[in-house]
Each structure stands twice: as C-alpha cells, then as structure tokens.
Design goal:
367 residues, alpha+beta, 4 domains, four-stranded antiparallel β-sheet, 11 helices
Length: 367
Amino acid sequence: MARWFRTVNHDQGCLLPADIRSWLPPDHLSWQVIAVTGQLDLSRFAAAYRADGQGQAPYDPAMMPGLLFYCYFKGIRSSRNIKRACVDDLGCRVICGGAVPSHRAVTEFPRRHRGEVRRLFVQVLSLLAAEGAIAGQVAAVDGSPVSGNASRFSNLDREQLAERIAALEAAIDAEAEAWLAGADDAGQQPLWDQDHDDDDGPGAGGGGLPRRLAAMAAKLARLRAAQDKLAERALASARSPQARIAAAQAAADAAARRLGQAEAAQAAVMEKYHAAVAAGKPWRFGKIPVPAQENKRIVLLRERAASAAARLAAATDRAAALSPAKVSATDPDSRLVPAKNGGYTQGWNVQAAAVLGRHQPGVRVGG
C-alpha cells in the first residue's frame, strides 16, 4: 500500500514575502509584551544616547526592555541564553524584528540603564492596577510586644537551673521516702493511684500519690524543659558564646590532631634514618630528615595549633565576660522583650500585619 506524506523541501524559497505577523498567533506572549512596552514611557532610555549620529547605532530602547521582559518571564536570565533565544525562539525574533543582539549588548543594557529599569516597575504596576489585575491595597507589618503568663523575675541561667533541678530532685527523693515510710508504718500498701490524693502528708489515709509530690514533679518537668530550651537556643544561634566556643574548640582539636600526625610521621622517618646510619647504609629516600623542631611544615603546624588554642581561650574569656543567657522557668518559650512604654516585659514579639483594602480593613497576627 502506498503511503502519502507531506513533502518537506528545505530548498524551497518563500513564494511570497514573509509576513512576521503570521509567525505567531495574536494572543501570543510576545505580542502582549510589545503592546505593554508601547505604553511605557521610555524617553529616559533614549536620552542616554548621543544624538549626533556618531558611532555604532545602538539597539532601539523600545525593543531591549521587551526582549528582557519576555525572556525573564520564560525563565531565561543568562545573557548568552538570551542571545541564543533570539535565533531559535520565534517570540524573541518577533520582538527583535529579526535582529540578534550579542550577549554583551544584552548584559550592558540593564547595567547602563539600571535606574530607568527600576522606574519601569512603577509604570508596570500602574498599568496592572488600571486593568484591575491588582488591587490598590496597603499592607503594614510591625512587631508588638505581648506579655506572657510568666514573670520576668523567673528567668534563670544555666547554673541556676542546674542548682534548682538538683535541689528539687533531692526534695522529691526525701518526700517520696518519707511518704513511703509513713505508708509502711500505717500497714498500708502504697498504690500510685491518682484517684486517691493525699493532702495530709505521709502516713495519712489513702494510698494515692500526694499532691505535693505531683506538684513537685510537674515543677521539675518545667525546669528540665527550660534547661532544654536554653541549650537549644545556644546551639541554634551561630553567634552565641556557646556556638563560638564549640567552633573554636573544633578548630583547636583539628589543629592539634594534624600536628600530632605530622610529628609522629617525622619521628618515624628520623628513626628510620638513624637505623640506616647505624647500619652504615646510605639514605636513599630523598633529603636527609631533620628533627621536628627544624622541620618547616611542623613549625608551621605548631604555629597554627597555638593560634587555634589562643582563639579558643579568647572565645572562652569573652563568654565569661558576657552576662549568662537566661530562660523563664515558668514559660520557656517566652523571652524578655522591650515593652511599649519603656522597660522590659516577659512575653513575645508578635508580628501584626494590617491590610487596608477597598472594602474593609483587615488585621492578621502571627508570632
């Protein structure tokens, strides 16, 4: 069976003059870019060029912004890729009218007219607002301190937290021991039953966990949560004293490790050299080795190790001179923030966003 295909003749010329308007449909992005560019005030671009006709003629300032808008919209940002698109992208060819700007011209245009390109954003937004594509709204974002359900005097540093946790654990052990001893004296079997609270202390009727012990256990849990939050903040901030000490410690350890490896390798080479000399054999492994204190590489490594140790000591001294970081034992998530009327308050800095639209104002609050 014969097959019929549409013939493709690459040698066939245009029977009629080519019309650039027939290359793309009327609703193509390139035509829209050309239409929008025609509504912009580009007089500042033209004023930047010479009017005496000397030198090489530049590309039309009405064409270059359209080319950049089109390519940026399609995700083409490299000047060399934009130059290639002017060859194989019909949209770019339509915008440029068949011209192929070099990548240097594409790079130089926004660099030369940076201020004018920045002013185009206002004109583009005005066109969008006139077409109803965007609404004329005003948004304002500001921080507002909000007091939390905690006192700022309950803030504790790491050492104070450790002391209170240790004291509370000891108190819980003593209280539990006294309660168990009282239950044994009364001939009762201690049952950890929350349905029978005991407010009368050890030895009273009922085998449930006393409320005093339950309150102390809850307080211990809050203190440990505050301790974990303090450690988390110290590790999360790269500028915190703890993070800087950790980085300096890691650098000092690495420098000391490299120095130790180099000294051990040099000692092994020296031992091998002395063995060869004692046996009367010539040294056939390069230059004659020297002691570690005369080896340039080891001397350099020692200087680096000493410098790393000095940075560690300096970071430790700076951390000791600073006020210790604190956290609230009541509400670990809160912080000490500046109050509206001066001073400080324990709470949060809430970010409040207010949007004023055409219909009614709206407020959105986020932490």
